[in-house]
Design brief:
- The protein is mainly α and 231 residues long.
- The chain has two domains: 153 residues, Ribonuclease iii, N-terminal Endonuclease Domain, Chain A, CATH 1.10.1520; 68 residues, Double Stranded RNA Binding Domain (2-Layer Sandwich).
- Helices cover 62% and strands 10% of the residues.
- Strands 1-2-3 form a three-stranded antiparallel β-sheet, with helices on one face.
- Strand 2 and strand 3 form a beta hairpin.
- Helix 6 packs across helix 8 and helix 8 packs antiparallel against helix 9.
- The longest helix is centred in the middle third of the chain and has 23 residues.
- The protein is globular and about 60 Å long.
């Protein structure tokens, strides 16, 4: 195993080399990798992910509590927008996690949704690795640089709202109507059902989305519609 790329990553993005490099390598190791490398790998990143998730939430909560006076409901929505899979997965992509991920051959060719989740989980695991190696303050700096640094944009765009709430706000402001959602079709067996849902404004289809549940498909359709209204 070539460990140079992990130390290079640590020097460039994590403030310096890791004394215990194995903890960082473990942060990039997906459970599936162990199935194909039983002799050379013995630990995956889920325990570090568990730790990093808690540190991430604490850092973000502490920042919001100490810098804003909004009520709990708004602070909760802001926090959710910062720590959701899309946000932390995007941060992992920006930092160049992809070549460092240790995955099985099958996972390397998985769906885009699965890959986004793996990136997000790895980001949390790296936070856990930083915490183990260097403590809370180093983890806080990493989270501030890569997650909290996006907060101004989140506020400006209103993306802290869930897509359905945001679409309703935009549509009511522009045309004085309320969006509605209809199931266009259902595909697949019951245990792997995929719903296709349309978002409608004044009976006009403005966005289409898919998901494993009607609710998830509605959110996807609202997000698609928002792209049209942003043009």
């Amino acid at each position: 195993m070539d460990t140079t790329q992990y130390q290079d990553f640590a020097k460039e993005n994590l403030g310096g080399e890791f004394i215990d490099l194995q903890v960082l390598i473990t942060a990039f190791t997906h459970r599936s990798y162990l199935n194909e490398h039983k002799k050379s790998a013995s630990e995956h990143n889920e325990r570090l992910e568990f730790l990093g998730d808690a540190v991430l939430e604490l850092v973000v909560t502490d920042y919001l509590f100490n810098n804003y006076t909004e009520p709990e409901g708004i602070l909760t929505n802001w926090r959710s927008s910062l720590v959701r899979t899309e946000s932390i997965g995007a941060a992992a992509a920006r930092l160049g996690f992809e070549p460092l991920l240790r995955l099985s051959r099958g996972e390397k060719h998985g769906t885009e949704r699965a890959r986004a989740q793996i990136l997000a989980n790895s980001f949390e695991a790296v936070i856990g690795a930083i915490y183990v190696e260097r403590g809370y303050e180093a983890a806080r700096v990493f989270i501030t640089d890569n997650i909290l640094s996006t907060f101004d944009e989140i506020l400006q765009t209103g993306s802290w709202m869930d897509p359905k709430s945001r679409l309703q706000e935009v549509v009511q402001g522009q045309v004085g109507a309320t969006p509605s959602y209809r199931v266009i079709s259902e595909e697949g067996p019951d245990h792997e059902k995929e719903f296709i849902v349309g978002a409608y404004v004044e009976d006009k289809l403005v966005g289409k989305g898919t998901g494993p549940s009607k609710q998830a498909a509605q959110v996807s359709a609202a997000a698609a519609a928002l792209k049209k209204y942003a043009k």
